[in-house]
Design brief:
By secondary structure, the protein is of the alpha/beta class. The model is unreliable at about 140-145, about 540-565 and about 570-590 (pLDDT under 50).
């Protein structure tokens, strides 16, 4: 912060008291004030010398007059960027010195009143600059600049600010020091007043505390919100990688990637009110998870039943949609802990690591002495409970309490997603066992239910967003510095069609099942609810999982295997009774080519638009699959093409993803 003015003055007054010391001290004090007097002396010499050269020259008089006027004007314009007082003072000084020099050159420096004007006027001007210089270093003066009044207005007049730095991302970072006895919490509480004083958006400032001092830290200003623009999910960040690699689900306001580490975070709470962006965050996270090779996913979705996450159902190892299935899944997760721990012990692992997920061919990790055992691997387990109030209502809290602290080492993570983590939705026992959180906009009265006290005290404020800033969030993760936890972030915008693309493209890289250990436990707990899992997904609105492409369809054999030996030229047997009644109803879809099917979709969009309808969902077009004459997967692919072409445009104001505006044909792509 530099030395205080009082300290500098004290150092100047201290020193030797001998004659030499006094002489040095006097010269040290006088030296800064000598330049104005040297200029006065130089002006006198200039006037005398000019008189010797141009005393009888009329042209010299005119030239000196012009020089005097020019110097005064130049000084006035050169001082334009300074303060008005300094500008006027400088111009008067130059005008007086140049005018006296001109008169002295023509009439002589000792003529008339010129000697008196020189002695009195020169001394006055030199003293005025000395006084100005002394006032600039007055320790009793108020701090320079507009920050003094600003800090006084917000109740922090004694706050000391360092030199501001502007980062490449547009952040303003200002080191600060509080007075003795104050803490950074006082500055944090004053931030709304500071934002109001400088008229920036709510959340435009935050405080990064020093881990070594209550009084020091950095005031971070983000006057322009860098998260305001929508960023679409760019695709999996590490397909084929490990679940221990970070999941990239968005960006912070300093442009760093928003990374979630499931194994590090242990158990997770995802909270936020309706419309705040929890569902799209679930799409981002699960799209990342389901492209990793060493993880098994158990997903509970009893409320929406696949309305948003249905595209990922085929890639999950177990999907629970009924309340009884949710209870069975939660119980199986808890009861799997000792079994997973036993597997790790027998294979000489102290905790779960990616090597556990593959077949055990290393003798160092064998359950059979002296040889590789070849046992099936133990994948990491992610148990995700969407709209988790249903799971909490059926969760055996005693069993959860016993297993919560042990399950981390065995390679499992629990995620509970809900709107309000209040006591009537989840008990304090369960909440205390969730050390990590992804918190979106919510009622400010619920902030203490979702975020730890130290994060709230440091400045996190999800109540400022509510549902008006979808995707804005704080990521609180075990082992992450508080300064990063209070940094606002925004998750990617996602789409249900992306989920199906992820499932079709990347799901094959994953471990094919939940492993023998988890399968045995789940079967013992849930029975047929686990062994018959997925059998009823199509009945509850799960999306079509037939990812056959047009090229694959062409390559299929046109004759069934049992009919390959038949002679198509042979006469058919006489018809039998009942041969005129088909055993399977005929397909009523018309045989349309790709261009004709696309045109049928275009006609539907034109008709809806002419009727005044402005938005649709993929389900609206899928309902006309027979008229379009194509499978649902083909229709969804065309919808994706229409989005890219501008025929359909994502409705960013819709409360849920997957709603598109219809644009007329003539304006599409413009």
């Amino acid at each position: 912060m530099g030395k205080d003015v009082e300290k500098v003055a004290e150092e100047r007054l201290s020193g030797e008291s001998s004659a030499a010391g006094v002489k040095g001290w006097l010269w040290h004090r006088i030296k800064p004030h000598t330049p104005p007097w040297l200029l006065v002396a130089g002006t006198g010499l200039a006037g005398g010398g000019a008189h010797l050269m141009w005393a009888d020259s009329a042209f010299a008089g005119a030239g000196l007059t012009l020089v005097s006027v020019g110097l005064t004007a130049s000084t006035w314009f050169a001082a334009k960027t300074t303060g008005p007082q300094r500008r006027l003072h400088s111009a008067i000084t130059v005008a007086a010195a140049s005018s006296w020099t001109t008169c002295a050159a023509l009439a002589g420096p000792l003529a008339g009143p010129l000697p008196d004007l020189y002695l009195m006027g020169g001394s006055a001007l030199a003293l005025s600059w000395n006084i100005r210089q002394m006032m600039r270093h007055n320790p009793d003066a108020a701090p320079a600049g507009s920050s003094a009044g600003l800090l006084d207005a917000i109740g922090l007049a004694k706050l000391k600010l360092g030199k501001a730095k502007v980062t490449d991302t547009g952040q303003v970072r200002v080191p600060f020091e509080l007075e003795k006895g104050s803490t950074a919490e006082e500055l944090t509480k004053a931030l709304p007043n500071l934002e109001s004083a400088v008229d920036v958006r709510p959340g435009g400032f935050r405080v990064e505390r020093s881990p070594e001092s209550h009084r020091h830290g950095v005031l971070v200003g983000v006057p322009v919100d860098p998260l305001s623009g929508t960023t679409w999910y760019p695709g999996p960040s590490a397909p084929g990688g490990s679940i221990t690699d970070p999941l990239v689900i968005g960006t912070y306001d300093d442009t760093l990637p928003l990374e979630m580490r499931l194994p590090q975070g242990v158990h997770w709470l995802i909270a936020g009110e309706t419309g705040s962006g929890k569902t799209e965050a679930a799409m981002d996270i699960l799209s990342e998870v389901l492209t990793r090779t060493d993880v098994a996913v158990w997903l509970s979705d009893p409320v929406k039943r696949g309305m948003d996450l249905g595209g990922l159902f085929p890639a999950c190892d177990w999907v629970a949609l009924e309340p009884e299935d949710v209870e069975s899944m939660a119980t199986a997760v808890m009861q799997s802990t000792p079994h997973r721990a036993e597997w790790l012990r027998r294979h000489a692992y102290r905790k779960w690591e990616p090597a556990c997920a593959v077949q055990q061919t290393d003798r160092a990790h064998s359950c059979q002495p002296g040889q590789a055992c070849g046992c099936a691997g133990l994948p990491f387990l992610l148990a995700w409970f969407e709209e988790a109030a249903e799971a909490f209502a059926r969760l055996d809290e005693e069993l959860f309490k016993q297993a919560a602290n042990q399950i981390r080492a065995t390679g499992a993570a629990l995620v509970f997603s809900l709107q309000r983590p209040s006591h009537d939705q989840m008990s304090t026992t369960v909440r205390a066992a969730l050390p990590s959180a992804l918190v979106f906009g919510m009622d400010e009265r619920d902030e203490t239910l979702a975020l730890p006290g130290d994060v709230l005290d440091a400045g996190a404020h999800p109540g400022q967003w509510g549902a008006g800033y979808p995707g804005y969030c704080y990521l609180v993760e075990t082992g992450t510095p508080v300064a990063r936890q209070i940094t606002p972030a925004r998750t990617f915008r996602n789409d249900p069609l992306v989920l199906e693309w992820v499932t079709a493209t990347f799901a094959p890289v994953r471990t094919p099942d939940a492993g023998q250990v988890m399968a045995a436990v789940a079967t013992a707990v849930a029975g047929e609810r686990y062994t018959n899992r997925g059998a009823d997904l199509s009945a509850v609105g799960a999306p079509n999982t037939d990812y056959e492409t047009e090229e694959q369809h062409v390559q299929e054999p046109l004759v069934d295997a049992e009919d390959t030996d038949l002679d198509p030229s042979a006469e058919l047997d006489e018809s039998q009774d009942g041969d005129d009644t088909p055993l399977v109803p005929t397909d009523t879809r018309s045989d349309l080519g790709p261009e004709e099917a696309r045109e049928a979709m275009e006609v539907l969009l034109d008709e809806w638009h002419s009727q005044g309808r402005r938005t649709i969902t993929p389900a609206d077009l899928l309902a006309y699959s027979e008229q379009i004459g194509r499978k649902t997967t083909w229709i969804k692919n065309v919808i994706r093409d229409m989005r890219a072409e501008g025929r359909l445009e994502e409705d960013l104001k819709a409360k849920k993803p997957g709603v598109y505006k219809i644009r007329p044909r003539e304006t599409a792509g413009v």
